[in-house]
Amino acid sequence: MMIRAYDDIIRMLQVEQFTQINSPAIIHGVSTDSRHINQGSLFIPLVGENFDGHLFVEEAIHRGAAASLWQKDHESPPDNIPLIFVEDTLLALQELAKQYMKQVEVRVIAITGSNGKTTTKDMIAAILSTTYKVHKTEGNFNNQIGLPLTLLQMKEDTQFAVLEMGMSGRGEIELLSKLAEPEIAIITNIGEAHLLQLGSREEIAKAKLEIINGLKQEGVFIYPGDEPLLKNISDFGYDLPLSTKRIRFGKKESNEIYPTHIKMEQDGVHFGINHSQPMDYYIPLIGKHNVMNATAAIAVSQSLDIKKEDIIKGLNHLKVSSMRTQKIQSNSGFAIINDAYNSSPNALKAAIEMLEELEGYQHKIIVIGDMLELGENEKELHRDIGRRLDPQRIDYVFTYGNLGKEAALEALNFYSTDHVKSFEEKEKLLKELLTVVTKKDVILIKGSRGMKLEDVVSELKNR
Predict the structure, then answer these.
(1) Percentage of the chain with pLDDT > 70?
(2) What is the pLDDT of residue 182?
(3) 150, 315, 457, 459: which sits with the fewest CB atoms below 10 Å from its CB?
(4) Three-point CA angle 431, 267, 123, nearest 5°
């Protein structure tokens, strides 16, 4: 984490108003939550629509913070507390992260996309860790608050920061990209997530392309070459300098890098890429969509001249963030694929294809939770999922939520009524699942974050 003298923080933020202290103070990182204070940290009281961290400054100091920022438009700052006065505490957090990043001289790789960005981030970090000291985004720390906190958690000797950039609207990724100034920027794909906020895939593409606004001029832009919306990014008003290298990845041979000879197994995938042997690479994740994520990670690694054997080693020892095609064995013997972190039409279709291709199970069961934030076409997008399901390849369909019911109604055109069930209560869903599942079966569970289907995963695993 950032360790700096109190006076250093003042210089990094270029402020003129602050509390004079008699004895030297060393700041150990930053905290934004007064309930979880790092000893000796700088408390940053953020201000939101429904909260104001300034109300907890004294509590933060009492819990061990060494000093605090204070926004100038807030009256009555507490006495006898080391305070650094700033115009905006959020902007100060971001500026502090930017200055620390420059002092550490870390190299930055930035990733965005509708799906797969967390898995791709984990793959890139795993590969680079074979050669360099790497710091990566943890959890969902991928927004205007989380990204600067991620940077401020870096150790001084970090060589690469692998940063995930999320968004819910226009302008957010541009802010993050200009803050981090990556030398490599990756877009994993353009999907339907955030249709509610942005209205169309074209607008989603524009938002994702904001990642190149902070890209270094002699950097590398890696993106899906099979995506029609990214064929001519100049149509969206983006022009990359000639010094920026472009690398396209995808299924088609027209891309600079593409996978070949994919072989699925119960616990992972063997594959090759162009200009390699057929089965050089292995990832301990199931699903062809994860091969595409790995292809993007390999493109990053090759652009950094990582040795092939280190790329293979990094992917072999990959550990991904939880609830992303995470395979779990239940106490009763059946397998659970926990893909419950989030969902969208593209991601769900990829998960369905993955389940269909799995071998060695007596029955395949899918649990589909609502896909949220899809806008006015949300019902039709769920019905489209129902039409995609095949009773010859997936045996049982269970849905959870009002929108999931739309998928179930469509699936009933192909399935018998005892093989498709829709629920609005998790306990009833669990009971029905347990009446059909056997120890030789596999259950895939996928839904949007708001559906919290990890609760079902936990119960299934332990019951």
Answers:
(1) 100
(2) 98
(3) 459
(4) 110
Q: Are 268 and 287 in contact (CB under 8 A)?
A: no
Average pLDDT over residues 183-201: 90
Burial of 95: CB neighbours in 10 Å, binned 0-12, 13-18, 19+: middle
Query: pTM of the full predicted structure?
Result: 0.91
Separation between Cα atoms, residue 99 and residue 107, nearest integer Å: 14
pLDDT band at 278, cuts 50/70/90?
confident
Count CA atoms within 13 Å of residue 164 on its CB side.
Answer: 25
Residue 463 in this model has a pLDDT that exceeds 80? no
> What integer pLDDT is reported at residue 189 of this predicted model?
95
Which range, 277-281, 339-343, 397-401, is most confident?
A: 397-401
Question: Which amino acid does the sequence have at 333?
Answer: G
**Angle ∠(336,338,341) on CA atoms, nearest 5:** 165
Tokens standing for residue 35: 């309930």
The pLDDT value recorded for residue 130 is 97
pLDDT at residue 325, rounded to an integer: 87
What tens digit of pLDDT does each residue of 203-248 get? 999 999 999 999 999 999 999 999 999 998 988 888 888 899 999 9
Q: Are strands 259-264 and 42-43 parallel, antiparallel or unpaired?
A: unpaired
Residue 52 has pLDDT above 90, yes or no: yes
Domains with residue ranges and CATH for the chain? 3-87 (3.40.1390.10), 105-316 (3.40.1190.10), 326-462 (3.90.190.20)
